[in-house]
Design goal:
Blueprint lengths: L4 H12 L7 E9 L3 H23 L7 H11 L2 E7 L2 E7 L6 E8 L4 E7 L2 E6 L2 E6 H16 L14
Antiparallel strand pairs: 1-2, 1-7, 2-3, 3-4, 5-6, 6-7
Length: 165
């Protein structure tokens, strides 16, 4: 789901509390684990198979609700926030209730953010030791924030960014 600029600013402000010694310059969201598109399709398929099995067994049509499926997705492919700061990059977990960053997973230098692959409209980005799947728009926001940081260092030229574009 797309994040508005206002929401992105609010979430970046909340993420600033996780890295108080650095100045947050960018904020992108994604999901860790398996490709979220595959996870959602598998969950829908399993839900339909379960419903068909219940119809055959009991004669009653029952379908799993949206809320249990969202909670299950939260645990299968947990949401992550990639926080770009002037001193490096932080990977944080995101809350199930409001989506804001609530705990740091790891902190690393800017060079530890690398694209890995693209599949089903998502870009897999290696952030330190963890793979984060992002929508192409989020990956573009991440790439822009990293490029902005690279160009803000005096006397250096930005390295070529191999992200998709």
């Amino acid at each position: 789901m797309a994040m508005s600029d206002r929401t992105r600013r609010k979430h970046a402000k909340a993420a600033q509390k996780l890295v108080p010694d650095a100045r947050v310059t960018g904020y992108a969201i994604g999901r860790s684990g398996a490709n979220p598109v595959v996870v959602v399709l598998a969950m829908i398929g399993c839900s339909l198979a379960f419903s068909i099995a219940l119809v055959l067994a009991t004669g009653q049509f029952v379908i799993i609700g949206l809320l249990p499926m969202l909670i299950l997705q939260h645990f299968i492919s947990p949401p992550r926030a990639v926080v770009i700061a002037d001193q490096g990059v932080a990977l944080a977990t995101r809350s199930l209730l409001n989506g804001k960053s609530n705990k740091l997973v790891s902190v690393m230098g800017h060079g530890y953010v690398q694209p890995v692959e693209e599949a089903l409209g998502r870009v897999k980005v290696g952030v330190g030791g963890e793979a984060v799947w992002m929508a192409k728009k989020e990956e573009a926001i991440l790439r822009a924030a990293l490029t902005q940081h690279a160009t803000s260092i005096p006397g250096t030229t930005p390295p070529p960014m191999p992200f998709t574009g």
